[in-house]
Design goal:
By secondary structure, this protein is an all-alpha fold. The protein has helices at about 5-30, 35-45, 50-60, 75-100, 105-115, 120-130; strands at about 65, 75. Helix 1 (about 5-30) crosses helix 4 (about 75-100) and helix 4 (about 75-100) crosses helix 6 (about 120-130).
Amino acid sequence: MPSRSYQRIRSDHASEVAEDYVEAIADAIAARGVCRATDLVKHFAVTHATVNNTIGRLQRDGLVTTEPYQPIELTAAGKRLATTSRKRHEVVESFLIRMGVSAATAATDSEGIEHHVSRETLDAMKRVLRDGWPSA
């Protein structure tokens, strides 16, 4: 029987792609007014088939709407997930920079860490960013 931490990691991995995609869709819409499958193909450097399969899962999960050859739209749930994911990403990236990690490395590392950070750890990161390091 898997441990609770293993189960949480599996759950994190399952939501990781959805979070990355809704965040990328929100970014494309903010930058260009629309998001098309080709935008995601370029962004993630994957095939159209991969994007289409993923968009199908996101549509099934109620995070996006789209029709063939039409732009991809975020649902209210998709927008909430994109916002939550973006905020978590920003906290992790800012925390890494506060620790002395270069901005380039923090940007790369935060892409993976953001999906696996617990609420407790994220709250601690926020406290450090807001109040500074706790005294020993």
